[in-house]
């Protein structure tokens, strides 16, 4: 055992909580990568055996994902990957717009030139991704969400940031599904919207920034409604 000069242990086994967080992160990534399908049962024993751990931290990890809305528990049946429907999409988009609108108001007041430059760098990263053939939609989604996450960070509004982060798993599923259905969206519209938001923040133009965010979100809502119609009323995703 490694000891410090004071005799305390330097290296210790991870806590149950840390292990649960690690398992939750691995399962979260698997769900977002569609390795676990909507409505697929997540069997604690199978996951524990696969990850060479006990069922306890797996159970705690599934509770974390349940709180994030990525997993649902059914009485006497267990945990299943959540299946989002039209109402879920609408709630996610409307809550996201409310959170990011507030974040923008604060960011416009507080953002430094360096912070605004960091947003511009993310837009440049989007442009580089859009020049690839085919576009890597997973990477494009990650950069897109990092842009919006950064606005929440810049805002300095800790409750907005923590609420957005708690919703981020569901946001990522929605955005990724949107991009998979509309692979040209990044080139055709998304980059332009993000550029205009950065310009509005740099010019301290709150109304313009909020208008662009609303247009961005409204277009996504339009896609959801159109997709439901194309599917003949089927509203699960």
Strand order of the largest sheet: 1-3-2
Quickly count the helices: 9
The largest pleated sheet is described as:
3 strands, antiparallel
Question: What is the C-alpha radius of gyration, as a whole number of Å?
Answer: 20 Å
Oligomer: single chain
Q: What shape does the CA trace take?
A: globular
Q: What amount of the residues lies in strands?
A: under 5%
Q: Structural class of the helix and strand makeup?
A: mainly alpha
**Helix amount, in percent?**
over 70%
Please give a quick description of this structure.
With 237 residues, the protein is mainly α. The protein is built from nine helices and three strands, in the order αβααββαααααα.
Write the layout of secondary structure elements.
Blueprint: H1 16-32, E1 41-42, H2 44-50, H3 55-68, E2 71-74, E3 78-81, H4 86-110, H5 113-130, H6 137-155, H7 158-181, H8 185-202, H9 206-230
Antiparallel strand pairs: 1-3, 2-3
Helix pairs in contact: 1-3, 2-3, 4-6, 4-7, 4-9, 5-6, 5-8, 6-7, 8-9
Describe this protein's structure:
The chain is mainly alpha-helical. It is 70% helix and 4% strand. It has 9 helices and 3 strands; from the N terminus they run αβααββαααααα. A 3-stranded antiparallel beta sheet has the order 1-3-2. The longest helix is centred in the middle third of the chain and has 25 residues, at 86-110. It starts with 15 loop residues before the first helix and ends in a 7-residue tail after the last helix.
